[in-house]
Amino acid sequence: MSDEFELDDSEYREDADRAYAELLERIGEAAPQPRLNATRRAVELLGDPQRSYPIIHITGTNGKTSTSRMIESILRAYGLRTGLVTSPHLVRPNERIVIDGEPISNRAFADNWADIRPFLELVDAELADNGEEPLTYFEAFTVLAFAAFADAPVDVAVVEVGMGGEWDSTNVADGQVAVFAPIALDHTQRLGSSIQQIARTKAGIIKPVASVVSAAQVPEALAELERAADLTESTLKVEGTAFALESSTVAVGGQVISVRGIAGEYRDLFLPLYGDHQGHNAALAIAAVESFLGEGSQALVGDVLAEGLATATSPGRLQLVGTEPTVLVDAAHNPHGALALADALRTYFTFDEIAIVLGVLQDKDADGIVSALAPVASTFFVTQSGSDRAIPADRLADLVARDAPEHAVQAFESLEFAVQDARIWASQAPRRAVVVTGSITLIGDVMALAESEGWK
Predict the structure, then answer these.
(1) In this predicted model, what pLDDT tens digit does every residue of 301-358 receive, in sequence order?
(2) Looking at the domain assignment, is residue 163 inside a domain?
(3) How far apart are CA 100 and CA 62, in angstroms?
(4) Among 3, 19, 169, 329, which is least packed, fewest CB within 10 Å?
(5) CATH number of the domain that 124 lies in?
(6) Pairing of strands 265-271, 254-260
(7) Does residue 14 sit in the same domain as residue 137?
(8) Among candidate residues 176, 205, 234, the one where a domain is terminated
(9) Residues in CB range of 436: below 8 A, 6 or more apart
(10) 235 φ/ψ angles, rounded to the nearest 5 degrees
(11) How many Å is the Cα radius of gyration of the chain?
(12) Would residue 283 count as lying in a domain?
């Protein structure tokens, strides 16, 4: 790999930080604009960089990032130079733009930002003349990612939507393959109050004559995907019929899975991720790669697939960040994700007691998250992340005490103190663990804390 894309280029860190600071001056991700015209105009001025490589486009409610990372890892095992864009980041914004398996370097981040900034400012001026808001943080970041991939260049880009699909900024790209992770209720203020409405918005990423692969969906979501596929003359392959996770066995460091793909059978693959949901994500990723490489008609090469899955990572998803005592972080931030976390803790670990360090953002279903986690929790250490959208710790603690009255609940305004006390609690008896969850911003803060303090 060339020096240009190495993350260890600390002399350019200040340049990258300045670029990121300029991005942060724009309207934040909590208030996305339901429009495509602004992003479309920006990439048009740049010569449509998103058209210079094929794209696998992925949406859904839970599992998008893990599935995206598995797809990228398999494609890279095939020798392709890959681009990957995910959101949000955990510690540094470079994580969102991955080129050939590595976060974009500080130098490339800053240089690409400098290249596109004049064009973004031109679009800002045009929008202002029309009485519209300037390009948002996410719109600008999407343009940056597409430009960085073209500059690399990449052979294929795996692109995760930010929110929804139809009007998400990433939808200025035409995905050759459209991938749907499980669809559930989330972002209801923006996407709709029913699964049908949310699925209809997400189905907007399906482009004419695309290959569409989907996880198993509830009937109302599947109906929307079938409708969109029919209207666009696309093919739709759904988990359970066209492909399936045949088996999953707990193994040291993850699980061993067998998958019936669209075009082949794949047995005894090691997946270094915990949770049955990750096995299903892997089946979806395999179907997506089959559809991309051979339009679903050609089986993947066994040893290449095995390498791709065995080297897949998904930071912040049941990730071990401390061992003395055990501390796991998981980015579950809605009830569907919290249920998957609870199931994985029961199946893949043998803890006697678990302390949940919990922080939730204001636009999330905190009641549903607590209800999902309460059956596996021994005690709650309630806190808040550094986000201005975080539910204040005392208010969240009251909610936890109401929804899980049988559990001890402590509130901490300071995340550092919450984690410190939870670790002390876990150290007082064998087979205790700490699980930090509830929001992605909370996970990012804890991962940074673990690194700075050098947890064992």
Answers:
(1) 999 999 999 999 999 999 999 999 999 999 999 999 999 999 999 999 999 999 999 9
(2) yes
(3) 24
(4) 3
(5) 3.40.1190.10
(6) antiparallel
(7) yes
(8) 234
(9) 327, 328, 329, 330, 356, 357, 419, 442, 443, 446
(10) -95, 140
(11) 21
(12) no
Ordered strands of the 432-437 beta sheet:
319-323, 326-329, 432-437, 353-358, 379-382, 408-411
Domain membership flag for residue 243 = no
Paired strand residues for 177: 56, 211
Beta bridge partners of 270: 256
Q: How far apart are CA 103 and CA 94, in angstroms?
A: 5
> How far apart, in whole angstroms, are the C-alpha atoms of residue 317 and residue 271?
13
- The string of pLDDT tens digits covering residues 84-135 is 999 989 999 999 999 999 999 999 999 999 999 999 999 999 999 999 999 9
**Which domain CATH number covers 430?**
3.90.190.20
Residue 295, phi then psi, degrees to nearest 5: 55, 35
Domain that holds residue 448: 319-453
List CB contacts of 185: < 8 A, sequence separation 6 or more. Answer: 61, 194, 195, 198, 334, 335, 336, 365
List for the chain the helix, strand, coil content (%; round to 5).
45, 20, 35
How far is the C-alpha of 77 from the C-alpha of 71, rounded, in Å? Answer: 10
Residue 30 has pLDDT above 80, yes or no: no
Q: What Cα–Cα distance (Å) separates residue 36 from each residue in 39, 142, 166, 168, 403?
A: 6, 12, 9, 7, 40
| Rounded (10°) angle between helices 37-45 and 106-129 | 120
Q: How far is CA 305 from CA 260, 277, 428, in A?
A: 13, 19, 43
Give Cβ neighbours of residue 66 (< 8 Å, ≥ 6 apart): 273, 278, 281, 314, 317
Of 204, 234, 264, the residue that ends a domain is 234
For 232, phi then psi, to 5°, come to -100, 5
**What confidence score (pLDDT) does residue 309 get?**
98
400 lies in some domain: yes
What's the total number of domains in the chain? 2
φ, ψ dihedrals at 379, nearest 5°: -160, 155
